From TrEMBL:
UniProt name for this protein: Trm112p-like protein
GO biological process terms, semicolon-separated: maturation of LSU-rRNA; maturation of SSU-rRNA; positive regulation of rRNA processing
Family: Belongs to the TRM112 family.
Coiled-coil zones: none
Lineage: Eukaryota, Sar, Stramenopiles, Ochrophyta, Bacillariophyta
A cellular-component GO term for this protein: cytoplasm
SUPFAM superfamilies, alphabetized: Trm112p-like
Length: 115
């Protein structure tokens, strides 16, 4: 199932310089509803909480996205590039299978009985 749910044990936020052009080039590749869901799941574990991102963004409309204001770009950059799941689990919504994340590396290997 997709998107995987996120259960946080440890999260790390590290600020990085906002690169507007890079973000705008990445947006067409983003499943925006999945991004919003991930932000909602991890934000309560961040101190301070993650910034709000718009409810809807037409990620495929590159011309319209050029008009996103600097605050929206900065907020989207924060949630896409500055937040790291250090320890926790990614959980399949269909099967409930829990994939552990340790040192920011998910272990997505299936057990033999799951293949």
């Amino acid at each position: 199932g997709y998107p995987l749910n996120i259960e946080v044990k440890t999260i790390k936020c590290e600020d990085s310089p906002v690169d507007r052009e890079f973000l705008l080039n990445m947006l067409p590749k983003v499943n925006y509803p999945a991004l919003r869901k991930a932000v909602q799941q991890i934000s309560p574990h961040c101190d301070p909480p993650l910034p709000e991102i718009p409810e809807n963004v037409d990620v495929a409309n590159t011309e319209s996205n050029q008009n996103l204001d600097a605050t929206v770009i900065a907020n989207m950059h924060k949630v896409m590039f500055d937040v790291y799941l250090v320890e926790g689990w990614l959980i399949c919504p269909d099967t409930g299978r829990r994939f552990p994340v340790k040192d920011s590396i998910p272990n997505m290997i299936l057990h033999e009985d799951e293949i």
